[in-house]
Every structure is written in structure tokens, then in C-alpha cells.
Amino acid sequence: MLQLDRLCVRIAGAEVLRNVSLHVRPNSFAALVGRNGAGKTTLMRTVMNLIPRWAGEIRIGDRATTEASPSDHARYGVGYMPEDRRLIAGWTVEQNILLPTLATRIPDAGARLEQCYSVIPELVPFARRRAMELSGGQQKLVALARALMVGRNLLLLDEPFEGVAPALAQRIAEILSELRTSGSLTVLISESDAVHTRSLVDLTYSIERGKIRQSTTGVAGEAH
Question: How would CATH label the architecture of 2-80+146-223?
Fold first, then answer.
């Protein structure tokens, strides 16, 4: 589903990603684990074509997406949850969740919204509340729901557990575990350590100083 081949990224002349190759198989969960500054967010943003790559190739499904426009991804079922949430503060929770559908004009947006609420029901009471009125953890749930609105094939979740209370981190892990049962979703999750992803993923890639150092089978992968 997601294939990176010798991906290199330079920012302000500094090499941030160096010959990164990884493969996330269709309908599997994978983790990208590394300390702050290792290159996790740069990799996610490059896959979404928000940062230009210097060399290498990106494929999502059967499509070469190296030169794709960022807006193309939503049309092809790719959802992205950025580390810093990137909600529109003055918009309501529901408006933020619906945001990816505005440009793509998805015809079943209402049905998808209800599905998101069924997966994350705790958002329903906050649907009319402005994003700025939510806690950081609640905003993470909104950002996850927004990614789910269009992420029917591939989800890229950048540090979903970062900066939230332990109880909410556990809840996010539960939501992702429930999504696994669908069997039709491919997910790449970045994390500073493997505390929350270890039991969720089939494969873990370790990244250090912009290079993939090793890959290991996760607990979920061992179960298969």
C-alpha cells in the first residue's frame, strides 16, 4: 500500500531523510519509531507531498505519488493526522472534521461523518463547540476523526499519543485496535517509543538521524 524507495529530503541544505526505504503492506499496521528530530514528521509530510523530496520514489497503492498534489491524497482515500493537529481554532469540531471533504466534494460526507462519530462517540457532545475550547487531548481526537473522513485506504498518524494524558492515550490505542478489525485499512503510526504501538502493529521501523536502522515484527504481526 505504501512504498518508499531510497527517499532523500534536504531542508535548508541539511539532509533530513537519507535513503529511506520502507514498505507497509495493504491492510496492515506499521510503526515508525524514533526520538524527536529523527525524521518521523518529515517522512510523514513528504509522503503527503507537503515537503518536496530531493531523490527517491513514493508509491501509494498502484499509484506513483512522488509528484502528486497534496490535495490528491484525500481523493484517493489517504488521511493524515499531523503531530500538531492543525485544527482551525474558530471552527466547530464538526466543521474541522468535514474540512477534507470541502475540496474533494465527497458525496457521502454525511454518512462518513456518522461513521466517524460511531468510532469516536465522545466527540458527539462537542460537535458544535469551537476547536479552541477543547483540551489538547480532545483536539487529538478531532484530528483523528478528520483523517478518518477521507482515510479509507491509508492513514498516516504522526505522534497520535504525544502530549496526551495516559487515559486518553489508551483510548486512542483502543480506537486504533477497533479499526484493525475492519481488515481493510493500512496505517502508519509514528511514535517516540514503542509503548503504545507495540501491540497494535505488524511491523516496526526504527529511524535514527534520518535513516531507517532496522525493522522488527510487532506483537500484532506475530499473532498473524
Answer: 3-Layer(aba) Sandwich (3.40)
